[in-house]
Specification:
The protein is globular, with a radius of gyration of 31 Å. Helix content is 45%, strand content 16%. It is built from 28 helices and 25 strands. Helix 5 crosses helix 7, helix 15 runs parallel beside helix 17 and helix 16 packs across helix 18. It is an alpha+beta fold. The protein has a five-stranded mixed sheet with strand order 21-22-23-24-25. A four-stranded antiparallel sheet has the order 8-7-6-9.
């Protein structure tokens, strides 16, 4: 049973609809009822589609565009995006004169805007300025469509569950109905109420209809209640539509086992639009819990730390000392991590567990009551940060992205008393002091070196210890690669989610592997079936790779005989000249785990060292070299020989030492993708 405090009406509605898990048929039935409703003398669907109608640039067929692209400077439409079902033409095409006429909706826009603002605030309300600013981010045609759909939903005689479904689809439409979405599309979502130089005006009726398929559905519905009604013993969700502090303290009969939260980073666009949408859907009263979003313009990390501290302090004061707090922090950046750690410590918590995924910028943080666990004495804050960072690097035994090390340094700062502890307020310069101290640790201590980035900021590239370190442990990427292959052998037809869960148990905390590395290993070793399950490729089965290495040995011996070298050894194999001096040493691998060979020491300069690996490992190897400067540096002077290239050389009837030397590096790693396309 889960208790949820939610003062955002938009999020509350989304939670209720997701938990009810309506079927696609139920959602479609609600959309059909709305589409068939009348707008004057025509169906609503026909009326709204007419606002976006365009013609195919190739065959002239009338069609519905997906979006219109606008230029912000001149506020002019410049192109449209569509797919013609008649002739197959698709993509971005120039705007037409007819399209320019249709961007202006019917009626007086001043009236539409005035009504939209009236639903949010009264004339003399301080919220009015924020509401008007938000409306500036909505195109006239989009505002007309939004107002029309909301008015029609309100006018229909619908059961409560069907009305909620339509409101949920409306939120999907509202999210797409503003000028914040860049063109060409960018990875990051909007955080400020600011349109880019080129933006999309989406076809909102098309968005509304597509949302039917986009909404995820659970295997079975979850019962949802509103306070004071509690969920049944077998499970469910109880929603309190307000702030956490207004709900606490809870009755003694309710003793939560843990607190869980997704902690979002500050997002002016999301919270401002949530307030606006709440007013449009439910009236001015629904805006009141979010009035601060319409009044506030700036969100910085210091403000965020204070807001988190306030919520965590209320939770700490009104919960059992042993109750853990589990936080998920998406879109994580260093300032965000500092704000969370400062807020948690100031509220009386301490970090007891963490996991970071750098490539998806997400952290999981586990907090527990600090109790009498006070900071250690005798070691300075900077030294403690360096120790903590060094411990993480030794544990991983390879260069690491800054985000993980930033959190590790914050743990050191916590241990040394460098974060506020059990304080009623967080000082205004706390985050600045933290950043200045960590800047000295990373950039001025001489303990760390950075590679892979020319940027001035610390939060890019890959960091490693300036003094070389040998732990005897494989680098983390090698350990993960090995475990993925073992898991594929143990459990054929495994989903990536299941594999990820196994890996996170095997490599917890600071060792959590990045998602991109897991995907890269799967693409290198496995094949995905139609159901999304992965199985080890036939070429990667242990017996097959054993045969490949046996063949590699035979081909190397054949080449040695042709070139009048003596061949001996058991992987690595040596080629010796007539005087017994080793000229070449070949290391046969079925994986990309080269560190154990390359980082062990230079060896004799006279010996030419060659790694013989499958072509399917090249992408993994390139990824490792991009992230690990010491591996890339140590590989200088080595040769990379692919299985297929060795086979081609061994099959040549004419071969000399000169030809061999010329051919040895003629199939470089960077050509792997090109070779595949040519073949």
């Amino acid at each position: 049973r889960v208790l949820v405090a939610s003062n955002n009406p938009i999020l509350t509605l989304l939670l209720e609809v997701l938990a009810s898990s309506p079927t696609e048929r139920e959602i479609q039935a609600a959309v059909v009822e709305l589409a068939n409703s009348r707008r004057m003398d025509e169906r609503l669907e026909v009326h709204l589609q007419g606002l976006y109608q365009t013609e195919c640039a190739v065959c002239g067929q009338s069609l519905q565009p997906e979006a219109v692209i606008w230029e912000r400077l001149n506020m002019q439409p410049i192109s449209r995006i569509y797919e013609c079902q008649n002739c197959g033409d698709r993509g971005e095409r120039p705007i037409t004169e007819g399209d320019k006429i249709r961007v202006t909706p019917p009626g007086r826009m001043e009236l539409h805007r005035a009504r939209a603002i009236e639903r949010i605030s009264e004339i003399d309300s301080p919220l009015r300025a924020g509401a008007a600013e938000a409306l500036e981010m909505i195109q006239p045609r989009s505002l007309y469509v939004i107002s029309t759909i909301i008015n029609r939903i309100e006018g229909l005689n619908l059961p409560d569950n069907r009305r909620k479904i339509l409101w949920a689809l409306t939120i999907s439409m509202l999210d797409a109905g503003n000028m914040l979405w860049n063109w060409p599309e960018q990875r990051s979502r909007p955080r400020q109420l600011s349109a880019s130089s080129h933006f999309r005006e989406n076809n909102l009726w098309m968005v509304f209809e597509k949302a039917v398929r986009d909404w995820p559905r659970l295997e079975k519905p979850i019962q949802v209640t509103r306070r004071p009604a509690l969920p049944p013993e077998e499970g469910g969700i109880c929603i309190y539509p307000g702030r956490l502090r207004a709900w606490l303290p809870m009755p003694k009969t309710i003793q939560p086992g843990a607190a869980l939260a997704v902690v979002p980073r500050p997002n002016q666009a999301f919270w401002t639009l949530s307030a606006v949408w709440s007013g449009w859907l439910w009236g001015r009263e629904a805006v009141q819990p979010l009035r601060g979003a319409l009044e506030r313009r700036r969100y910085d990390w210091q403000w965020h730390a204070g807001a988190l501290h306030h919520s965590l302090s209320v939770l700490k004061k009104n919960s059992a000392p042993q109750m853990p707090v589990f936080l998920i922090c998406p879109e994580l950046v260093p300032g965000f991590a500092s704000a969370v750690m400062a807020a948690a410590n100031a509220a009386g918590y301490r970090l007891s567990g963490q996991a970071v995924r750098n490539d998806v910028e997400t952290a999981q943080i586990l907090l527990e009551d600090r109790g009498n666990n006070n900071p250690s004495d005798g070691i300075g804050m900077e030294d403690e940060c360096r120790v903590s960072v060094s411990e993480v690097l030794k544990l991983r035994n390879e260069p690491c992205p800054y985000l993980t090390l930033h959190l590790a340094a914050l743990v050191g700062l916590e241990r040394s008393g460098g974060l506020p502890i059990n304080t009623p307020e967080i000082a205004w310069d706390t985050l600045t002091k933290i950043q200045n101290l960590l800047n000295r640790v990373f950039n001025k201590s001489g303990m760390l070196v950075r590679s892979g980035s020319q940027a001035q900021s610390s939060d890019s590239g890959w960091w490693w210890l300036s003094q070389e370190l040998t732990t005897g442990e494989l680098p983390l990427s090698d350990r993960v690669e090995l475990e993925i292959v073992r898991s594929l052998m143990r459990q054929p037809n495994i989903s990536i989610r299941h594999l990820d869960a196994l890996l996170c148990k095997q490599f917890p905390g600071w060792l959590t592997p990045d998602w991109a590395w897991i995907e890269a290993c799967l693409e290198s070793y496995a094949i995905k079936d139609g159901s999304g399950k992965w199985r080890l490729s036939e070429l990667e089965l242990p017996q097959k790779r054993k045969q490949d290495l046996t063949q590699v040995e035979a081909e190397l011996e054949s080449l040695a005989n042709k070139l009048f070298f003596k061949f001996h050894g058991v992987n690595p194999w040596n080629w010796e000249d007539s005087e017994g001096a080793i000229q070449y040493r070949f290391y046969g691998l079925a994986s990309s785990m080269i560190a154990r060979h390359v980082l062990t020491g230079p060896g004799p300069d006279s010996v030419r060292k060659v790694l013989v690996i499958p072509g399917s490992r090249i992408k993994l190897l390139l990824l490792k070299l991009r992230q690990d400067a010491r591996l890339e540096e140590s590989l200088q002077g080595w040769h990379i020989l692919k299985f297929r290239h060795l086979k081609n050389m061994a099959a040549r009837s004419e071969m000399s030492r000169e030809i061999f030397e010329n051919m040895l590096d003629s199939d470089p790693m960077s050509n792997e993708g090109l070779q595949d396309r040519m073949l």
